[in-house]
Amino acid sequence: MKVLVLGGGVIGVTTAYYLAKSGHEVTVVDRQPKAAQETSFANAGEVSPGYSSPWAGPGVPVKAIKWLLMRHGPLVVWPKLDPRMWVWLLKMLRNCTAARYAVNKSRMIPIAEYSRDCLRALRTDIGIQYDERSQGTLQLFRKQAQLDGTAGDIEVLKQYGVPYEVLDRAGCIAAEPALAAVKDKFVGGLRLPEDETGDCQMFTEALAAQAAQLGVKFMFNTGIESLVADGSRIGGVVTSAGLLKADAYVVALGSWSPYLLRPLGISVPVYAVKGYSITVRIKDPDGAPVSTVMDESYKVAITRLGDRIRVGGTAEISGYSNKLEAARQATLDHSLTDLFPRGGDLSVANFWCGLRPMTPDGPPVIGPTRYANLHLNTGHGTLGWTMACGSGRVLADLMSGKKPDIDTSVLALSRYQHRFG
Ligand SMILES: Cc1cc2nc3c(=O)[nH]c(=O)nc-3n(C[C@H](O)[C@H](O)[C@H](O)COP(=O)(O)OP(=O)(O)OC[C@H]3O[C@@H](n4cnc5c(N)ncnc54)[C@H](O)[C@@H]3O)c2cc1C
Question: Is 391 within 8 Å of 16 (Cβ atoms)?
């Protein structure tokens, strides 16, 4: 088939790569000058199937109020006169029950674990490099109450067979030696040894180069304006480079997917949740993290990526604005200097924000639509880097008429025909 993949973030590029591997003739279209220049550009770098959970969970509404009032809090809401924001928030609230959380999580874990396995296979098969590390991730607790509160999380890890280590202070220092300098700031941690880390943008660019070798064409600097319906099929895509036609189309436009789909009568409950990161050069390698340390109090992830440290966090619900708010940088700076005071050179920090394409229930939307040749790969929210390779692979399999290695029916758009979503 001739396939047009709309969007050249990590999701579009992994989809294009696996489609090309399956023998299709693929073109990727994106408005940016190269791959992974929007949300996939500077994320926190965690490939973390172990922490693949929906944000909507029991107790979250109460916690959200506390977070909103906290200095350096992980959640910020700027109410807007945008009905889509309120509908999305209401849907998310409806997913905050224990029963919905369990269902949603059970849909996220298999795609995240499968994705990590696909990523490992890519490393073996094509030797892809992206400042990757396989040294687990450490959730660090500053308060005893946080450590005591992990019982529920541990039950879930056990249920899914995810290896974990509950660590005291000395155990945390053994995993992350630089924490010895700040040992009074934390009481313990939860380590997931199977988690990995790496630079999502580096990976995406490297995979795009591999895809190009397989014959994938990239049309960068090309704006996508609309999809043209032709009965029960899509007949073409109107772009700044004219009308493009193919046998099949994939929408992998991240947070912007709903804008292109709505005129076709397809409602995808994806909304933008802004996050921020800073990237700094490592000043003292012995004072830097070896992998990801998640500062649980502020929900900030501090990750070593080669000779840099990436610090990412904050969920800001403020519409589709890309404005960089200085207060958010202060939170990231605070977490880094508090835990790794000698680690990074904050005098030259690259401050960035991206819009996570979030679904209200948590899992991404992967699979068919009511147009026979239109397919979705979007809504990966806070875990798009973790789930990218698996998402690309299963969609390529579905489109090629092959049975994917995991059950993808629970990730399809049709799940929103039921009561929740
Ligand atoms: C602060 C932060 C930290 C994060 N940390 C992690 C992490 O540690 N681990 C993890 O797994 N995930 C993380 N994420 C989430 C992850 O980055 C996203 O889920 C992922 O990047 C989404 O990829 P995507 O390809 O769907 O979207 P994008 O990367 O945004 O790609 C969509 C593409 O579509 C293009 N596009 C959109 N509209 C148009 C149009 N009209 N015309 C042409 N092109 C268009 C854009 O240019 C863009 O390239 C984080 C996100 C943020 C913001």
Answer: no
Q: Label residue 420 by pLDDT band (50, 70, 90).
A: very low
By C-alpha distance, which of 46, 67, 295, 141 is closest to 151? 141
Could you give the CA distance from residue 8 to residue 5 in angstroms, rounded to a whole number?
8
Candidate from 256, 304, 324 with most ligand 1 atoms within 8 A of CB, to mutate: 256
Give the predicted TM-score (pTM) of the model. Answer: 0.96
**What tokens appear for 218 in the block?**
């990239």
At 99-118, the pLDDT tens digits run: 999 999 999 999 999 999 99
Is the beta carbon of 279 within 6 A of some atom in ligand 1? Answer: no
CA distances from 384 to 157, 301, 356 (A): 20, 15, 8
* Coil/strand/helix, residue 167: strand
Whole-number Cα distances in Å, 411 to 13, 39, 160, 366: 19, 21, 18, 6
C-alpha to C-alpha distance for 149 and 222, rounded to whole angstroms: 49
**Rg of the chain, C-alpha, whole Å:** 21
Average pLDDT over residues 15-22: 98
Structural contact between residues 196 and 116, judged by C-beta atoms closer than 8 angstroms: yes
Residues 6+ apart with CB under 8 A from 379: 257, 268, 269, 270, 357, 358, 359, 363, 364, 365
Residue nearest to atom 2 of ligand 1 (CA): 43
